[in-house]
Amino acid sequence: MCKRLTDAGWQVRVVHPASDGFWNFPCPVYPQIRLAFATAGRLARIISSAGADYIHIATEGPLGRAAAAACRRLGLRFTTSYHTQFPAYLRHLLFVPEGLTYANLRRFHSGAAATMVALPSMKRRLEERGFQNLVYWGRGVDTSRFHPRPKSNRYERPVILYVGRVSKEKNLEAMLRLNVAGTKVVVGHGPQLDLLRKHYGSTVQFLGALDGAALEAAYADADVFVFPSKTDTFGLTIIEALASGVPVAAYPVTGPMDILEGHPDAGALDEDLGVAVRLALERGRPEACVALAAQFTWERSVEQFVANLVPVRG
Asked: 2-140+299-308 and 159-293 share one CATH topology?
């Protein structure tokens, strides 16, 4: 997003946990994610010195909350985005009632002139929870990186792939427990990696986190991509797999449903994940997958993002 905005003539400054000398620390549940300790006063000074025409707050973390408080203090309007299903995650990980988390998030986003969400079904769900001023902001995939390639003979086929965080809320064991032929491959890192590798390491290929050409090749070498999560707000890995010519198997939930519904030759949705895998392998056509992924471009995403911004004053 930053690169494409800059290419389009925008001046972009990102304030994040590792910038501006913030004291930052690892998130207790996800040590790979850094959180910053920042006060509203300090963010007010940063925002004032930037002289921004538009302010977007990307997450509801400590830094985002300090930024929102600073904007209110300065009398500036801002937009926010809803990226993560924190209510479901906190219920899975810490047994926090979803109602409490939704109420907290609703208070945070109520201060925004607009809150951007990635999918129509997520917009409807949040509206049912009392969220207001919701606007659509889709995602994109870089088809110069993710595209079909010849399959290797590295594994016994079919190759059943998962890419993403290896953590409890991703419901990865639903895939690992499937009694299906072929080879299951897991790409990613996370708090459950050691545990799952211990239990399933004899039957599953755990490749760890991959990036660049290695990640692109892992996608293209798969015969079906499995998205077992029931709690995501979009599922960017779905369109990366589709762009690689790989059909997707998933549950009929927010994210997969919005992308795949009505496209049976690009994947399958079923409450039985094993059935979804079988149908995706039987019906999936690489050209249909690529055509569906082509609907999700970063150029379109940038246009939607810019259209949703609001001037800080006015």
From this structure: yes
CB-hemisphere CA count at 13 Å for 209? 7
Ramachandran angles phi, psi of 268, nearest 5°: -145, 145
Unique residue bearing structure tokens 């951007």: 116
Which pTM does this prediction carry?
A: 0.86
Burial 16-40 (b: 16+ CB within 10 A, else e): ebeeeebebeeeeeeeeebbbebeb
- For 159-293, which CATH class? alpha beta
Quote the CA–CA distance of 314 and 57 in Å, as a whole number: 19
C-alpha to C-alpha distance for 283 and 133, rounded to whole angstroms: 39
Task: Write the CB contacts of 178 (distance below 8 Å, at least 6 apart in sequence).
Answer: 160, 184, 273, 274, 277
Can you state the angle between helices 98-109 and 62-74, rounded to 10 degrees? Answer: 40
Alpha carbons 109 and 83: distance in angstroms, whole number? 12
Domain positions in the chain are 2-140+299-308, 159-293
Q: What is the pLDDT of residues 154-212, one digit of tens each?
A: 999 999 999 999 988 899 999 999 999 999 999 999 989 999 999 999 999 999 999 99
